[in-house]
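Appendix B. One record, verbatim.
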Amino acid sequence: MNQIHRFVGKGYDVYCFSGMRLGFIRPNQGNEGGISMNRKILAASLAVLSLSGGAFCVEAADMPVYTLDGIVVTASRVPEKKIDSNADVSVVTAKEIEEKHYDDVSEAIRHVPGVNIANHSGSGQVGTSNQIYINGSKNVVVLVDGMRRNTNGNSLCTADIGDMVNMDSIDHIEVLKGSASTLYGSDAQGGVINIITKKAKNDGVRTTLRTSFGNESREKYSLHNEGREENVFWNVDAGKELQGKYKDGWGRRVINHLNAEHYNVKLGYDLGNDSDVVFNYEKYTSDYIRPNSGTNDTGRARGKKDNDSVSLQYKAKLNDRLTSQFSIYRNNTHINDNYTTSYPWDMKMRTTGISDQLTYTMDRQTITGGFDWYKDEIPYYKGTPDVEGTSITNTAFYLQDKVDLTDRWNVTPGIRVDHHSEFGTHTSPSLSVGYKQNEKTNYYINYKSFFVAPSLYNLYSSSNGNKDLDPEEGNTVEFGVNHRFTDSLDGTFNVFHTHAKNLIDFDYTTSRYRNLGKTNANGFSLSLNKEFSRHWNASLGYSYLHMQAKAGENINNNGALPESTLHVNVSYKADKFNASLDGRGVMNRYGSKGSPEMRNYANYWVWDMAANYHFTKNATLFARVNNIFDQFYTDVGTSFDPYGTWYSAPGRNFEIGMQFTF
C-alpha cells in the first residue's frame, strides 16, 4: 500500500506518496511557491493516478463509471448517448452521490470541469450567496426534471442549489456547459444544470435511513422511501442537519451555525405506453448564522430561509413518433438575512411557469418544439418599496430540427423567440453541425446566441437599481470531440469563445448597476476517464478560462475566477469496501488589483476522501474527510484582505455515519 509522508521545510509542507513529491503550499509561504505551482499540480495529479497500482486483490463488482455510452437528455431534450451528443455534458450519478455523501447539489457539481461555486460561508446553506459560474458566466439555467428553478431578485445567486439537499431522490445531475439558449432560455449563456429525480420502475418498497456525526457540532439525519405498487410510484424524503462553528486552514474559529430541515414528496401514476403524470412537492427551512462583513469572519449575521416548490408534469407518448411533456410549477423563495440588525435583507421571490414540449421523430430527423412561459415576481422586499411588488413575464416559442444528412453528418438548426414584458421580443438562433467519424468518435461545432435581461433587483432597487439598463446580448461558438480510446478509456475535449455586449455589472463609482461595455471569454476543458480494473478507476479533468479584463481590473471577472482548474479522482471498489480520493487544484486566481494579498493565495489544492464499508447488503458504515491537508482558501474570489473579511472555507473536517436499507 502506498504511504503518505510529510516533510516540513521553511515556510512550507511537502507531502509524498511513496516518495513522489506533491508540493502542498502552506499560507505562510506567500507568493514564493506560485512560480512552480503548475509543475507541482502536474506532479500531484500524476502521483494520485499512480495510486491505481495498489495491491488489492479482492473480488469486486464493476465500477459505477458513467461512460460515453450513458444516456443524457439535457443537450437536445431527447434521450441520446453521451458520445452522440453535440455538446459538452458532464454527469454526476446517483451512485456517486451515495458513495461520496454529498450534502447538496452545489457540492455534487463542484468537481465538474468548467464549473465554479462561490460560497460566502461554510456551505451553500449558510448565507445568502451560492453563485454558480459555468465557462465563466453566472447566467446559468437550473432545472429539476426540466422545470425552471432560477430565482429573480437575489443579486448574488442564480438558484438555490445549496439548499437542494434531498440528495437521495436524485437519479443523476447533467451539467451542460456552453450556451443552450434555443431550448432552455436565452439566459442560458453559460450552460444548464438539470437535476433528474428518481422514478421507481419495479414493484416493491425500499427505505433508507442515514445518520452521521462530525466535528464542529455537525449532525445529519435523513429518511428516504421509494416504491411502486402496480401503476402508482413514489419518493418520500425527510431530513435534518445541524452545523456549528468551524476552523479554517489557519485554525481560526469562523462564525457558523445551521439548523435545517427538508421534506419532499413525489407521487406518480403510470398511464402505460411510456406515459405518466407526476406530482412533486419540496420544502426547505433553516435558521443560520454566517460571518458578517468587515469583522474578520467573527461577527454574527443571523438569517432564515423558507423555500418550497410544487409541480405537476404530464408525459405522453401520443404515437410511435410523437411525444409530449407538459409541466406546470410554482417556486417560492424567502430569505431573511441579517434580520437582527437595522439593515436586514428580507425578501420573497416567486416563479410560476407553464411549458409544453412536442418531439416528433422520423427515420433521419428529430423535430423538437414547444412553448415556455414564466412569471418572476417579488411579493415582499422589506425596506425596498421600489422592488416590492415588481414582476416580469417571459413567453417563448422554440423549434429545433436535427437532421441526419448521412450516416456520419448531421445538422441541427434552431430558433427561439422570447417576448419579455420589459424588453420586448428577441430572437435567438442556433446552429450545430456534427460529424460521427465512427462508433468511437464524434465531432461537433456549435453557434448559439443569447440575450440576458436585467434582474428585478438590477432594475428597481432604490439604492442600486437602474431602470435604463439594456439586456446583455452575445453569442458563443464552440468546438468539441467525444472519443472512446479503448473499452476502458474515454475522453472529451471542448473549446469555446463567447462575445457579449451591454454587460450588466455594479459600478462602484456611481453605486448603481450599469451596462459596462463588452467582453470576450475564451476557454477549453478536457476530461479523461480510465477504468484500470474491476477495482480501480481514475479520472482527470482540466479547464482553462480567460475573460477580457475591464479597465482597472484583472482578467476573469476581476480575478474572481481562476485561469486553470485541475480535478483528479481515484476510486477503489471491492465486495464490501469502496473509497474515493478527489483533488481540486486552483491556479492563478488573483483577485482584484486593489488587493495584492490575494495573489499569495492564488494557487492551492484541496483534497477530499470518502469511504464505505458494507457490513451486510443493507447496512453500511461510511466516513469522509474533507480538506485532508487543512488548506487555507476561500471559494470566493474576494477582493478583501484575508486578515479582514475573507469568508474562508472550512479546514480539515470529518464525518462518520451509518446507513440502513430495508
